[in-house]
Write a structure and sequence with these properties.
The complex is a heterodimer of chains A (540) and B (271). Chain A is 43% helix and 10% strand. Chain A is α/β, with parallel strands linked by helices and 540 residues long. Chain A has a domain of 85 residues. In chain A, helix 16 packs parallel to helix 18. In chain A, the strands form four sheets. A six-stranded parallel β-sheet of chain A has the order 1-10-7-4-2-3, sandwiched between helices. Chain A has a four-stranded mixed β-sheet with strand order 8-5-6-9, with helices on both faces. Chain B is α/β, with parallel strands linked by helices and 271 residues long. Chain B has two domains: 124 residues, Rossmann fold (3-Layer(aba) Sandwich), CATH 3.40.50; 106 residues, Rossmann fold (3-Layer(aba) Sandwich), CATH 3.40.50. In chain B, the strands form two sheets. A four-stranded parallel β-sheet of chain B has the order 2-1-3-4, sandwiched between helices. A four-stranded parallel β-sheet of chain B has the order 6-5-7-8, sandwiched between helices. Helix content of chain B is 46%, strand content 11%. Classes of the chains: A alpha/beta (540), B alpha/beta (271).
């Protein structure tokens, strides 16, 4: 068996032979050209929170991927069903959601004090706390720690915060290989791909694709590897075990940090996270500043809410907690990097701040009918789905929570039918639909100062004038009835000019009726002798 | 009861059968229905698309038109639409307050307190589930997102349908999944919307139903538009049109998805 020497795909490098050629398939280099990608078109973003086309165009591309749609449709359905079953057996689920939401509100209201309390407690127990204003600062801190330890390879616990800052790519530029140890995250990394789901980053891949990725990129995968899940897991297990035993530095995120004890917590399913958290000499945890809970008791609420909402399990298999360092037990050195990266701007926003309540369970992704069809990559951010549609544009907004016309993230708040399924399952009751509507209003208002004619704005203005008055609306309705001849014998319009053509591409439009309702009503309620029975004007 | 009918802008213009049936049904149950002619639209489309400023005059017109219900001139306002009722209940006052119109917001809330979606009015306010309807067709019901998750109407519409004589009510698979309409979403994200619609129409067709019904004409326009394009032979009828149907005066089954019988239609003879 060949020995894998180590540097996983370098996303931004060109033509440097950055991929290891394993048994079998001769893979090309990850040169950035989509056409050369052996595992389908994968994004190679410069910015983890803003890549690719605006949502409608990006979604059009992913919708064309039949395999993706089948994989996603199946996977989201399975998780949805599991979640519904285990949530249904908790009699006080709604009370738990209220408690979770309440704790998070309390955290946001006292965030500065709680962060200082956390810092004091982590420091008192032998940890080192770093503050990072943005991605660059956070990446610098982690790279410097790894270099100081002489590490050219670090093992990683699955973490959204480090995805958000592009840590792996930043470390690679410094010659440090970051090895993802979460099975799904490893699949994504080996394929030089981007995650498409918060919890199940390789949800867009099926097991045959995973086998191909392992064979081509893992280096030490058995050449007769099948696509049986157990075999795939065993191959990854053998591959990763060597990494765990040799790594000097581990990097993790955190699900929770307890302010009053300085305790960090990571919940996971595989145990690979615990390997990282306990074996290497040095542990660096990168955590968004919103991940706090005030007291240890508060964990009770979230450790019930999170596993049931995310994996649909009653309890996750592994819950690791650590407080500073303990001589002779686990890492001898612990660094906590507290990451802002736009969060204080979100916190300052009265409406949008509840996006910071998110505990990254991904329940909203699994129930979202839009996500289910288009997948995560269409959102152009490591945070996809409904939560991504409110979190991403807020994190990247310039000021006042506005993305602005040229920013593809300005399209994210419109990537929803406002069906409300996300709000219904959110374990901390983030009212995602209302925030989406609010973010839409900001983009609209920001666009008002732009010169030139925006057809949407013009149409909305005209519609506002017509719809603000019963008489004007009645007139418009009468005018519409003149168009009844547009439909054929089936009263349906199948071809229409833009913008209605976006509708008629896949749906018919009803032809207007011969009479509007109000015309019929007036006729019905008119007594020929006495004049109109209902006197509309006096009721206004 | 004296009930003011808010026809909704969409049904008033494109689907008059729905508000007609609402009026017919409530009158049959012994109530007086009035139609305040000043009404136009609740403002939902503007609000949901982010045009709050343009929504204000639309909301003002709706609130002022229906303000008499707050003074007791009418007992209730009925809206045969889950999403419009949702907008009245959850958005109108918020948008008014944002615009600094606190007084209008207060009136909007007072009107909203007496505004009911059709199944809410029938079951919660009027206390009926058996409305004495007859409808001898195979029907499947799409619960519509805003009725389900914004208003929480629960199984009220289904209970009303189950009580209809001779109805063959069949369950819609994945009923609670959105049809992909989402107002301007259907235009702004037409491809995604169409993908959602394809799954919804497939489920509707699976049931073998002759009639698809729902409490919201906008969703029915969308799903019906897909069914019509596919020549699926499934008619889209509003819940009110099913409930208004009786043995003596049955709601006729339209020839195609969107055809509407035009009672007192003076132009019909000329056609």
């Amino acid at each position: 068996m060949s020995t894998f020497l180590g540097l996983p795909g370098l996303r931004r490098s060109t033509g440097t032979g950055s991929t290891a050629t394993g048994a079998g398939a001769g893979t090309g280099t990850a040169g950035g050209a989509v056409a050369d990608e052996p595992f389908g078109p994968v994004p190679h973003p410069q910015e983890p929170l803003r890549w690719g086309d605006a949502f409608p165009a990006a979604a059009k591309q992913t919708l064309a991927n039949d395999q993706l749609r089948r994989n996603l449709g199946h996977a989201t359905q399975v998780i949805r069903t599991k979640r519904a079953a285990v949530v249904g057996e908790v009699p006080d689920w709604e009370a738990l959601r209220d408690a979770g939401s309440g704790v998070k509100e309390q955290v946001m209201a006292h965030l500065p004090e709680l962060l200082e309390q956390l810092e004091r407690n982590v420091t008192a127990r032998g940890g080192v706390v770093h503050w990072a204003r943005d991605a660059a600062e956070a990446n610098r801190i982690v790279a410097d720690i790894a270099k100081a330890k002489g590490a050219d390879e670090v093992v990683k616990v699955k973490s959204m915060a480090t995805q958000e800052i592009g840590l792996n790519e930043a470390l690679a530029e410094e010659g440090i290989a970051a090895v993802e140890t979460d099975l799904a995250e490893l699949i994504v990394q080996l394929a030089d791909d981007m995650p498409s789901h918060i919890l199940v980053p390789a949800i867009h891949r099926n097991r045959t694709e995973i086998r191909d990725i392992f064979l081509a990129r893992m280096g030490d995968a058995p050449p007769d590897l099948s696509d049986v899940p157990r075999e795939l897991a065993m191959a990854a297990r053998a591959h990763l075990r060597r990494k765990f035993l040799s790594a000097k530095v581990a990097v993790s995120g955190a699900n929770f940090a307890v302010a009053d004890t300085g305790t960090l917590a990571v919940v996971e399913s595989e145990g690979n996270g615990r390997m990282c958290l306990t074996l290497p000499e040095t542990l660096v945890t990168v955590m968004g500043i919103e991940k706090l809970v005030p007291t240890f008791d508060d964990l009770e609420v979230f450790l019930q809410l999170l596993p049931r909402s995310s994996t649909g399990e009653r309890m996750n298999p592994y819950t690791s907690m650590w407080t500073g360092v303990t001589p002779g037990d686990g890492p001898a050195e612990f660094h906590l990097v507290l990451l802002d990266n736009g969060r204080t701007d979100v916190l300052a926003d009265e409406v949008g701040r509840s996006a910071l309540h998110c505990i990254r369970c991904s329940a909203c992704l699994n129930v979202c009918p839009v996500y289910e069809r288009v997948g995560g990559h269409a959102y152009g951010s490591v945070y996809p789905g409904p939560i991504g549609a409110i979190l991403t544009p807020q994190l990247t907004a310039s000021s006042g929570g506005v993305s602005g016309h040229g920013d593809p993230n300005a399209s994210l708040p419109y990537a929803s039918t406002l069906c409300g399924a996300c709000y219904e399952v959110c374990p901390v009751k983030i009212d995602i639909p209302s925030i989406l509507v609010d973010l839409r209003a900001r983009e609209v208002d920001a666009d008002r100062s732009r010169s030139g004619i925006d057809p949407w704005a013009a149409a909305m203005k005209a519609a506002s004038w017509v719809m603000a008055d019963g008489d004007r609306f009645a007139l418009a309705g009468r005018a519409a009835t003149l168009g009844r001849g547009l439909g054929g014998r089936d009263h349906a319009i199948s071809v229409a000019p833009p913008p209605a053509s976006a509708w008629t591409r896949s749906r018919d439009l009803p032809a207007p009726p011969a009479q509007t309702f109000r015309q019929w009503w007036r006729d019905e309620h008119t007594d020929p002798a006495a004049g109109p029975a209902a006197t509309p004007k006096e009721q206004r | 009861m004296r009930i003011a009918l808010a026809a909704t802008c969409l049904a008033d213009t494109l689907f008059p059968g729905a508000p007609r049936a609402t009026a017919r049904l409530l009158e049959r149950l012994g109530h007086e229905v009035v139609f305040p002619a000043g009404q136009a639209c609740c403002g939902q489309m503007h609000v949901n698309t982010g045009y709050f400023r343009e929504a204000v005059p639309v909301i003002r017109n709706h609130v002022e038109t229906f303000a008499p219900v707050a003074d007791g001139e009418w007992d209730a306002v009925v809206l045969p639409s889950g999403s419009c009722t949702g907008s009245v209940r959850h958005q109108q006052a918020m948008v008014c307050r944002r615009a600094g119109l606190d007084e209008l917001a207060a009136t909007a809330e007072a009107v909203s307190d007496k505004t009911y979606e059709l199944s809410e009015l029938l079951v919660d306010v009027l206390g009926v589930t058996d409305v004495g309807a007859w409808f001898g067709h195979r029907v499947t019901y799409h619960p519509t997102c805003h009725s389900l998750r914004m208003l929480h109407v629960g199984d009220k519409p289904l209970r009303l349908l189950q009580a209809v004589e001779d109805i063959d009510l069949v369950e819609l698979p994945e009923a609670e999944s959105c049809c992909g309409f989402g107002g301007t979403f259907a235009l702004k994200n037409a491809d995604t919307s169409a993908a959602m619609l394809a799954d919804k129409t497939a489920h509707v067709r699976e049931t073998g139903a002759t009639v698809l019904t729902a409490g919201d004409m906008s969703c029915l326009m969308h799903i019906g538009g897909g069914l019509s394009r596919q020549s699926a032979g499934v008619r889209a009828l509003h819940l009110a049109e099913v409930l208004a149907s009786t043995r003596e005066e049955p709601t006729p089954l339209p020839a195609t998805t969107f055809t509407r019988p035009e009672r007192h239609d003076r132009t019909e003879a000329a056609r």
